[in-house]
Fold this sequence. Notes:
By secondary structure, the protein is of the alpha+beta class. The model has no long low-confidence stretch (mean pLDDT 94). The protein is built from 3 helices and 5 strands, in the order αβββααββ. Bound molecules: guanosine-5'-monophosphate.
Amino acid sequence: xxxxxxxxxxxxxxxxxxxxxxxxxxxxxxxxxxxxxxxxxxxxxxxxxxxxxxxxxxxxxxxxxxxxxxxxxxxxxxxxxxxxxxxxxxxxxxxxxxxxxxxxxxxxxxxxxxxxxxxxxxxxxxx
Length: 127
Ligand code: 5GP
């Protein structure tokens, strides 16, 4: 895949189209949230735009301000609905190869349900 070019056959596009099953947590006309297939914690939800954006970079550059705001507001709501706001949670979005992005459809991970430790495994500088 050419870098930065959206591939309509990526796995999350297939989940959005209903071609591949996923355990949905939330859905509206702009956003879909579902459980990660390989959860890193008791709660590990992927929140994806229905719009075709490759990554965080692409989303923030191309989406209207209202869509960006709505997306992040929805993440907050989902975290709250999962009861994560009380003890805390982490949101992660990986852009590009240094961040090990593996699915090239913009998504944010919501991770929580246990103490999450260091931001980067082995790195205690953020504690
Ligand atoms: P990235 O590394 O791109 O930030 O995250 C991609 C995430 O998608 C990974 O955490 C991976 O476990 C998850 N994932 C990959 N394929 C599937 C799938 O088919 N279904 C679900 N629910 N999650 C997936």
